[in-house]
Backbone:
């Protein structure tokens, strides 16, 4: 602490100003961070950013609507591409990335929020590993398909 006792002419005022500016900038950034995290101002900024992201990923909603109409009418003869393998557990109304951007006030983010049809991916979600096609109707009365294999109802009756 010997530098505090120096005369005013020997102290470096340039170093003090630089440290003061750095300290003020740091505290300013901390205050802005707390304002964005703990006030509704951050929610509105997140919502506006989310809207910009959605608009950039779905550039032409008319083209998407035409393609969906063709698929529903059965006139689209080209195969629809498969979604990535990470989309196996995709649940559009329970998307954690979407829910993390919603308001925390009154647990609004925990409610179910389904995306608009224009925001949903236009691809086929692959079945999970080990998925088997269900047993058709008449056979399903006496047969149950489980992960280990198929069992007849006679096994349960003998049990």
Residues:
């Amino acid at each position: 602490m010997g530098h505090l006792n120096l005369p005013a002419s020997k102290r470096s005022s340039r170093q003090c100003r630089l440290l003061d500016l750095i300290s003020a900038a740091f505290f300013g950034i901390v205050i802005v961070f707390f304002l964005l995290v703990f006030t509704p101002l951050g929610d509105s900024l997140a919502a506006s950013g989310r809207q910009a992201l959605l608009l950039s990923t779905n550039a032409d909603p008319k083209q998407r609507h035409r393609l969906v109409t063709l698929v529903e009418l059965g006139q689209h003869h080209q195969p629809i591409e498969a979604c990535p393998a990470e989309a196996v557990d995709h649940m559009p109304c329970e998307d954690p990335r979407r829910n993390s951007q919603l308001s925390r006030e009154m647990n609004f983010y925990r409610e179910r929020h389904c995306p608009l049809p224009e925001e949903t991916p236009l691809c086929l979600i692959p079945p999970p590993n080990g998925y088997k096609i269900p047993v058709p109707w008449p056979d399903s009365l006496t047969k149950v398909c489980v992960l280990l294999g198929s069992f007849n109802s006679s096994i349960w009756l003998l049990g």
